[in-house]
Amino acid sequence: MKARGAVIHQVGGQWEVQDLEVSEPAEDEILVKVMASGLCHSDDHFVTGDIPVNLPMVGGHEGAGIVEKVGSRVTRVKPGDHIATLFIPACGVCKYCVRGQSYICNNGAGMETGMAMDGTARFHDTDGNPIGGVTRLGSFSNYLVCHETQAVKLPDDIPFDLACLVSCGVATGYGAAVNAAPVRPGDVVLVMGLGGVGANAVQGAKHAGADHIIVVDPAENKMELAAGFGATAAFTSIDEARPLIAQLTNGQGVDVTIVTVGRVDGDIIGEGFDTVGKAGSLVLVSVGSHERSLSVSPQDMTNLAKSIKGVMYGNCRPLGDIPRLLDMYRTGSIKLDELVTNRYKLDDINQAVEDMHAGRNIRGVVVHEH
Ligand SMILES: [Zn+2]
Ligand SMILES: [Zn+2]
Hints:
About 25% of the residues lie in helices and about 25% in strands. The protein is an alpha/beta fold. The strands form three sheets. Strands 3, 5, 6, 9, 10, 17 and 18 form a seven-stranded mixed β-sheet that branches. A hairpin with a 7-residue loop joins strand 1 and strand 2. It starts with a strand and ends with a strand. The chain binds zinc ion (ZN) (2 copies).
């Protein structure tokens, strides 16, 4: 099967749109006609080398599309089904899946290779050289092959360019507030970084009943957007937000700070941790370097009973939570249309990345052609 996709060949490079050959699905795999893919910041971490992966690799993990073909043992979906991709599989039977923690399913191991679970590639270039797919997906290609446990069936009436966002950014941000923090009614919440994940952390905090949701983002254009998702105040720096935080919390600090900046480091974690009050939590969603670095006061952590929580995939169970989030979109409980700032053709993917870096987008979405 011929396909066209955006591939990263070297750390620090640009996405190159090229012709690809997509393999036949194995017995437990599906072939997906990818209709849309969100531009999640995580894909950029593969480009910068913050998340080391084997290159070359087809980018994209926030995808939605139509099942074209299924292997002989596939039972979860059938041809014609609309699906969203899961960047972590939900095998359903490993230790973590049976504990309700499919966001850390054991079958996620080895996904940095980009190879299918049998260790071989599902993409090849026109010379026959193997190419991996980000998180074993590669939704920057207009066709992909993935394991059936990396797909969730969608209702047919949700547009693909909205559904794709739910597969990563929405689930991750919403879940960070609702599942991981968890935010409680009346809380004062700070969200650091208003991108495709941060906007959903705001929506989640609002839904969980927070009284005050303060957004900090250096991009001026995001101040107004923040209010649309439920923020009660927005500032371009934590220094500017500090007087309001002090006023709302009797000088003690917020109940929950959620870190959803594009790239996190130890200093940002320290800055966030210092905004949290007694028994409060810093919820760390962003990805950064794998180097060891954390500038927090151990004394504060103990004496003020503060915690730092890492969260993956919003601590969601995507097979159940993604359909539930889409039901909430239908009833107006969460916004999806407003998350999409710009739609791009695959050929314009580097422009989309530039817009993301410049803070122009909440989310950019690549809409594929076939
Ligand atoms: Zn993502
Ligand atoms: Zn599992």
